[in-house]
């Protein structure tokens, strides 16, 4: 007779979840017993890095990723990273080992008391099966829940004495199931939307991360070209849904109510696709919409649709809806928008480099299909202006701003996309939250390139301190960090590049190789 252990591995295998990101403890060992040869275990040294790696893997592959954490302590360590996974619609199937069933009540060591409550509200579904025989079914439910629109993390706590129990009769049906969303709006809804777009005098497109998640970038390009629409990236961008040197590309909208209305002034129809309306950050009150503008929102997430403060929304499949729109609208007679001018190079003196220079060197050397994992908070605007991104899946940034994403996600993305090169661009503040991912990159020889921008400070917070009028805040500088020593300590080849020529040489050498490399670059602080 099959065990719960065997039936559960069958289900994971059937869904292609053969990579397990984890950090084990005693509660998890029975799950890892007789580890099947067709599975691989990717060990992270801290659960923040484990969840960050899995997040990168899920985002870059478009598939669920399986995580195994240690009880409550491991779950707690991973929760900062879960904030990003939640807001990026990342389908993480997170399992955590629980004490044996008879020892949970007495709160023996490693009992995860009220386990399903612990990761809320950062998971779509959370459970501990009521008996061992329900574990395979609950695992199947977890995988489908994570992968159905809107994709999201889920959590399953599993007592460790369950694995050796016999699986229930009929368990084989679970691995055979297909569960899919069918989310095309009705012909009437599509007709109305196409009519509004065709009637608009001066429409504008605002694109969010779920366009990239749906691999609908080429459809967004076709729609923008047909309607001669400028295309903005929705604020707090965590992915790149539109090629950044296309004539229609306009850049990333500011994350403020007033700033968005100013940038979109003059448009009569704002079509937002695959983003919340909107993901604001700094509080700058004002009109939600420019005068005379209507807003229409296409989203895969009912929560996003319902909580928006303005506009009409249509909840459906982003790829299919955009495809239908491209077919429905006629090519406009308006002139095509003009491409943005390329920013001029910065003149560098001796000493720390302008981040803009670093980005120009990256733009010069990165392969056309390079993937950038970005976590340097003060340099976002400069990066989008200077680094060309062409292909879907080219950019990942922490979707909730939860630092500790960059280094681990770069490792996970590189694992998911071995044929593309991943360049992590990480601030010297951010790097510390996920630094142990370097060890995983070294041990599994995952050839991501990590460029650490060392400006000695929390640059974005220095800017925010000005916005919030807190000129004297303590705790904003991070001097005395040597990332080359840290990198070597974790087993990664690490070099410093103190000027543009050595950065060019080191980046070229790293991209020509097949091992992880860390490049520390002393940089100046700029306004975000
Ligand atoms: N802790 C977490 C987990 N997430 C956060 N976003 C913060 C703290 C607050 N925070 C936002 S930006 C920032 C901090 C600490 C500074 C990041 O500094 P760095 O990576 O050096 O980038 P820079 O702003 O200098 O480009």
Automatic annotation (TrEMBL):
Short name of one Pfam family: TPP_enzyme_N
Domain named Thiamine pyrophosphate enzyme N-terminal TPP-binding: residues: 9-105
CDD domains (UniProt xref): TPP_BFDC, TPP_PYR_POX_like
A biological process from GO: carboxylic acid metabolic process
Keyword Amino-acid biosynthesis among UniProt keywords: no
Limits of the Thiamine pyrophosphate enzyme TPP-binding domain: 382-521
Keywords: Lyase, Thiamine pyrophosphate
A single MF term (Gene Ontology): thiamine pyrophosphate binding
Residue ranges occupied by any Thiamine pyrophosphate enzyme central domain in the UniProt entry: 192-324
Superkingdom in the source lineage: Bacteria
EC top class, as a word: lyase
E.C. no: 4.1.1.7
UniProt family annotation: Belongs to the TPP enzyme family.
Entries under NCBIfam families matching the protein: PRK07092.1
Name of the protein in question: Benzoylformate decarboxylase
Gene behind this protein: mdlC
């Amino acid at each position: 007779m099959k065990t719960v252990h065997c039936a559960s591995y069958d289900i994971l295998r059937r869904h292609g979840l053969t990579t397990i990101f984890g950090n084990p403890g005693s509660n998890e060992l029975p799950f890892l017993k007789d580890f099947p040869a067709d599975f691989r275990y990717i060990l992270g040294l801290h659960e923040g890095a484990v969840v960050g790696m899995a997040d990168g893997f899920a985002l870059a592959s478009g598939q669920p990723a399986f995580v195994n954490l240690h009880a409550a302590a491991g779950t707690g360590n991973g929760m900062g990273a879960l904030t990003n996974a939640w807001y990026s619609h990342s389908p993480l199937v997170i399992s955590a080992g629980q004490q044996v069933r008879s020892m949970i009540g007495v709160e023996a060591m490693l009992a995860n008391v009220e386990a399903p409550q612990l990761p809320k509200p950062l998971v779509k579904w959370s459970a501990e099966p009521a008996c061992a025989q329900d574990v395979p079914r609950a695992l199947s439910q977890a995988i489908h829940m994570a992968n159905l629109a809107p994709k999201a993390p889920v959590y399953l706590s599993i007592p460790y004495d369950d694995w050796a129990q016999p699986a229930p009769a009929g368990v084989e049906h679970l691995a055979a199931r297909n569960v899919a969303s069918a989310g095309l709006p009705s012909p009437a809804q599509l007709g109305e939307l196409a009519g509004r777009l065709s009637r608009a005098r001066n429409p504008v497109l605002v694109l969010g991360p779920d366009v990239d998640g749906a691999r609908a970038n080429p459809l967004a390009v076709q729609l923008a070209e047909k309607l001669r629409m400028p295309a903005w990236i929705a604020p707090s961008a965590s992915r790149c849904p539109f090629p950044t040197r296309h004539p229609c590309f306009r850049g990333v909208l500011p994350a403020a109510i007033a700033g968005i209305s100013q940038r979109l002034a003059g448009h009569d129809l704002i079509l937002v696709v695959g983003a919340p309306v909107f993901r604001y950050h700094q509080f700058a009150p004002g009109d939600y919409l420019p005068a005379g503008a209507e807003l229409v929102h296409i989203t895969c997430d009912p929560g996003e649709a319902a909580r928006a403060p303005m506009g009409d929304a249509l909840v459906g499949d982003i790829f299919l809806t955009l495809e239908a729109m491209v077919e429905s609208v006629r090519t406009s007679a308006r002139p095509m928008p003009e491409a943005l001018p390329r920013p001029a190079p910065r003149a560098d003196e001796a000493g720390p480099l302008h981040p803009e220079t670093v980005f120009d060197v990256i733009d010069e050397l990165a392969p056309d299909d390079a993937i950038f994992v970005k976590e340097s908070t003060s340099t976002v605007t400069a990066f989008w202006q200077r680094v060309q991104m062409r292909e879907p899946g080219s950019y990942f940034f922490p979707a909730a701003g939860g630092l500790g994403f960059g280094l681990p996600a770069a490792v996970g993305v590189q694992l998911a996309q071995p044929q593309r090169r991943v360049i992590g661009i990480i601030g010297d503040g951010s790097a510390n939250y996920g630094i142990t991912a370097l060890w995983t990159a070294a041990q599994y020889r995952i050839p991501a390139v990590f460029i650490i921008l060392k400006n000695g400070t929390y640059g974005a917070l220095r800017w925010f301190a000005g916005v919030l009028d807190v000129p004297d805040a303590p705790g904003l500088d991070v001097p005395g960090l040597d990332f080359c020593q840290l990198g070597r300590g974790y087993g990664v080849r690490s070099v410093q590049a103190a000027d543009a020529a050595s950065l060019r040489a080191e980046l070229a050498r790293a991209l020509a190789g097949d091992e992880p490399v860390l490049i520390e670059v002393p940089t100046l602080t700029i306004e975000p």
